[in-house]
Amino acid sequence: MASSSYSNPPCAACKFLRRKCLPSCSFAPYFPPEEPTKFANVHKIFGASNVSKLLNEIPPHQREDAVNSLAYEAEARLKDPVYGCVGAISVLQRQVLHLQKELDATNADLMLYANNDAAHSYQVTSNSTLYNGEESNPGLILPYASPWNNSSSNDSKSM
Ligand SMILES: [Zn+2]
């Protein structure tokens, strides 16, 4: 009988808590012995008894997702004790905002060049000297000033 218990290593939770891992262990399916830090993190943040209660309250098919969520939140909380995973979310939201601004600016750029091309080909037929002289300052032929261009160029405080 000793050989059968030896072939069944305790789950990460039972090993951490130094208790016998019974076949009915509620942690065993979600905390394999190969991932000892997963349970250690979850235990440190939420407490083993809370996790056990939570697992018993939710339907079995949702338990794995719940444990993975707890593990993710625990890891984030250990990494960032103040904000936890909210810190990661806000960093990603800021990144999305920044990329959206970049995309808007690039789209505005594209519009500008598309307009310049249209204006250029139009003016070539009507008055070619007007555009050719202003090659270095294509903004002149636009009927409006683009706001993103003004902010990125030299600031207005220099007179
Ligand atoms: Zn166990």
TrEMBL record:
InterPro entries (UniProt xref): LOB
Domain named LOB is located at 9-110
Q: Which family does it belong to?
A: Belongs to the LOB domain-containing protein family.
Q: Which organism is it from?
A: Olea europaea subsp. europaea
Q: Name one Pfam family in it.
A: LOB
Q: Which domain of life is it from?
A: Eukaryota
Q: What is this protein called?
A: LOB domain-containing protein
**Classification lineage:** Eukaryota, Viridiplantae, Streptophyta, Embryophyta, Tracheophyta
